[in-house]
Amino acid sequence: MDAVTTNETQDLKLHFLDYWRVIRLRRSLILVVFLLCVMTSTLLTIWLPKQYSSTVQIKVQKDDPEVSVMGEHASFMGTDPYFLTTEFRIIESYRILTNVITKLNLEEKLAQQNGGTRWPIDDAFDYLSHRVVVEQTRMTSLIEISVKNSDADLAAKIANQVAESYRQFRREQWTETKYRGINALKEKLGDETNALLAAQNKLDTDRTNLMTSDLFDESQASLTIISRTLEDWAHQRVLAQADYLNYSNILDKLNAMPAEQLPKALTTAYAHQLDPELVDLSQRLQTAKVRMVEAKNTYGVEHQTYQTCQKLLEDAQKDYQNKIDGVMAGIRTRVEEDRGFLQIIEQQEKKITEEKNQEAQRNRPYYNDKADVESKRRDCELLKSMLNREIVEQGQPNDNVVIVCNPARAAKSPVSPKSTLIIPLGVFVGLIVGLGLAFFIEYLDTSVKTIDDVERALQAPVLGVIPQNVGIIMEEGAESPHAEAYRVLRTNLLFSRKNEGWSTLSVLSGGAGEGKSTTLFNLATIFAQNGQRTLVVDSDLRRPTLHKILHTTNTMGLTDFLLKQRSMDEVIQKTKLPTLDFLPSGKLPSSSMSILGSAQMKETIQELKRRYEFIFFDSPPLLGVSDASILASEMDMVLQVVQFRRYPQPMTLRAKQMVLKVGGNLIGIVLNNINMSQDENYYYYSGYYEYQYQSQQKDEAVVQVSNDNKTPNVEIKPKY
After folding, report:
1. Beta strand ranges found along 483-627 (DSSP E)
2. Which three-class secondary structure state does DSSP give residue 199?
3. Taking a C-beta distance cutoff of 8 angstroms, is the pair 155, 149 a contact?
4. DSSP per-residue string spanning 685-702
5. DSSP three-state, residue 467
6. What is the DSSP string of 344-366?
């Protein structure tokens, strides 16, 4: 877990270091863009004319709706979400603003502010409409009218005049609405009055034709008596029907009983509804039965008392039966009488209903006309009342439709340009644009930037890092701080050899101008300074440059030897270093384009190996001609020079692939032209080199102080 966490932290740290590296590398661009934005924002705050803003705050209410007529009652609508928005557009309208322009003579004032004489009113409106802002005060129903102008007093006057013009417009609109409503009321009242007179005439005609005696105030009053009579008959019908149903129900139940149960039922269940005499006869019968039983038990059946009791029982039974028959007959008679009476009531009720319907149908036109007259009379009275009220309101204009809450006042400080906003915004935009442009350019730049880029793209080790502005080591001297970079390269190169017999080395590059020739010559110089017999061969036959570094001629060289025009000793030249020799390229005949791939070239390489410990072959760019590929295939070792931030990585990768494709032994990469002071990835290289150089300078100064009487002979040579 600890190892994983450490790796993740390191990756994140490297990620931020990459961003910081881009910022340091592109700091000039970032600074230029930043300064341009800051200067632009500062100049804007100076050059832009100052504008003052004045605001008037008003309260706006809805107008009363237009006068309604004929029962269309006026009603205020609920909350209108578009009311204030509509009023905003009205305030900004041509009618309101041109009125302001005319009242304040803005055609001349605005033209004078802008260097003119007098503007047309349309031009003044266009100018003013862009400087009038109408908005709602937050969390209220108030309206704020803001006006911007270079003159603070004029801005306040314009804002107040806009509010006054809008107020006058609303007042005129209210008066016009009232006037239009009153005219509509008058016209409608005249129509309703004529309609009322016509309805009254028709009512009189119907009364005469129908011979209606209208004695009551209520409509259809003549039908009231008939209605009450009909109600009485209906009440009697209900009573008769209830009586009939009651007795018919009793009769049905009595008829359904057996004969022996009928007397008991009449005396018990229906005694309270029938004749009381029946109850007395029933009690008498029961008493006779009791006496007869007592006489029988006391005297016997032969006794006179028993016979008398028996005679009384027979008389009581006869009288009781006769009474029951009479009661049943009375119930039947009552049911028949109730049925007949109910029929009579229904017939009478039907007759009265028919008379009532006929009377209503006959008088209906009259009463309809009368109701119409009453309705029209009420409408006329309502219209007269509304007309009088509107006439009174017309004489009292509604000044509360627009109320000025806070009038505009001249502002003391300008609202634009806002230096506190523009300059910080310029600073922010400058930083953002500068950083964005820097990272965008960095994103487009696919060249080699770090050692990691080289090793990741080329899958080859970096053997040396060469700083910027490196001169010729032979001229700068062995103690030059730049020489240490080549010593490191020499050490890494020797340790990278898998075979100590490898002595031929070619320094290649993908494109021109990457510093391969300088790198090769300085590296060869370092080898020679260490006492190793070294030969530098300029095998770039098309564009040779090494003879210029050594300030020698290129009249004869490698090509002359390969063409067997000169001997080896004739073409090899000596240098300032005893251990360093130079073989120029010589002139390239047009008929010998593939001379580097010849068998003579291979024999020459073998001959040079026997004479020298190390041989360095300069070559043209790999992607230019085929000579470099041929040389790479014949060398023991190949170094590829990659210049810092020059060519895209795919081009560098293509050069490496070409070396491997021809069988070349690519031993490593040299990263050239590094700005040690700007890139922290290489700062430790320059730090060590500069420290070593400064120590040497101090030692030389000490020697110079100790030898006061001696003047050292110092030779200064130019760097190429």
Report:
1. 504-509, 534-538, 573-574, 580-583, 614-618
2. helix
3. yes
4. HHHHHHHHHHHHHHHHHH
5. strand
6. HHHHHHHHHHHHHHHHHHHHHHH
Residue range 626-657, pLDDT digits in tens:
777 888 888 889 888 887 776 677 777 787 77
Q: How high is the pLDDT of residue 329? A: 80
For 51, which DSSP code? B
C-beta separation of 451 from 462 below 8 A: yes
Task: Show the tokens assigned to 87.
Answer: 């009023």
Strand partners, 507: 618, 639
Structure tokens at 668: 């490593």
Interatomic CA distance for residues 57 and 43, integer angstroms: 35
Residue 130, both tokens: 């862009």
Rounded Cα distance between 520 and 517, Å, is 5
Q: Whole-model pTM above 0.70?
A: no
The reported pLDDT for the residue numbered 270 is 57
**Which DSSP symbol is given to 67?**
P
Element (H, E) at 149: strand 142-149
For residue 709, which amino acid is it?
A: N
CA distance 584 to 547: 6
Q: For residue 586, which of 625, 614, 547 has the smallest C-alpha distance?
A: 547
- Rounded to the nearest integer, the mean pLDDT of the chain is 78
**pLDDT reading at 220 higher than 80:** no
Torsions phi, psi for 665 (to 5 deg): -95, 85
pLDDT of residue 700: 47
* pLDDT reported for residue 145: 93
Residues β-bridged to residue 272 = none
Q: Give the integer Cα–Cα distance in Å for 518 and 468.
A: 12
From residue 337, how far is each of 232, 243, 324, 329, 343 by CA, in Å? 20, 10, 20, 12, 10
Which of 179-183, 350-354, 383-387, 396-400 is predicted with the least confidence, judged by mean pLDDT?
A: 396-400
As a residue count, the chain comes to 720
pLDDT at residue 691 greater than cutoff 50: no
- Angle (CA) 92-93-96 rounded to 5° is 90
